[in-house]
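User: I'm designing a mutation panel for Protein takeout and want to avoid disrupting the core. Could you give me a predicted structure to guide residue selection? Please restate the sequence first so the numbering is unambiguous.

Assistant: Good idea. Sequence first, for numbering, then the predicted structure tokens:
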Amino acid sequence: MLLLTAIVVCATTLGCIAMIQASGSQKPIQQDQIPPLQTAPIWLNACKKKDPNLDECICNTFQNMFPYLAKGIPEIGTRPFEPMDIDKVSLTKGQGAITLSGAFTNLIVHGPSNTTALYTKMDLVKNRLDIGLFIPTIKVESKYDLKGNLLLLPLVGVGDAKLFLKNVTTHVQTNIYFPKYMNETVMVASSMKVDFNLAAMRVNFDNLFNGNKVLGRTVNTFLNQNALEVVNGLKENIGENLSTIFKQIMNDAFSHMPTKLWLQDD
């Protein structure tokens, strides 16, 4: 739960400040310098606005894109995200039952490339797009340096952290609009709300309490016994920050994909 909260950027509404730093070996992509596509690539299938099966078609569009997004799509400026590498997540949370300060470093995230699009619902009158996503497993390995309390239980340590999430189902509600980008009409998400559920989760922090095996085992056992309960308590705040990540990924991609190539009038 702790690492999940850090990865999705800790909740600002609870006074939490988290900073994710991209890999220093890669130069940042200047999205505003990437021109929109002019022809439809193999990974982009076209849908008709008046198609009675429009939702199913758009669902297939998303599904077809996932394997390519995992490898990165240079023509629309998206980096590979399988595995997803994050240099550092600085974490400070000073309110509520959970108080933490410190950082995760050298994060490696496996699993996003296995995402399945469960459904899409597009309303072109209300400018609304809803998406259901399923990820069977997410695995994270990182270094950590944390100090604080979890539900009145102290947590202090420096070492390796591992996280395993199983059967993650995500429901995304998006408000969209269709502006012009370099004289092409594109789709952009203006706001987003994310809800999620997961079937199980396990976490392990090595070297807690300066290597005290008894205390370390106690804290890890407590985390695994109460992981879903704690996640449910933070679900709304985690969802808010997931929406920030999902919105950026969607806009980076679709802002360079003219609707004439995938959401056609006739």
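For picking mutation sites, this is relevant: The mean pLDDT is 81. The CA atoms of residues 63 and 117 lie 6 Å apart.
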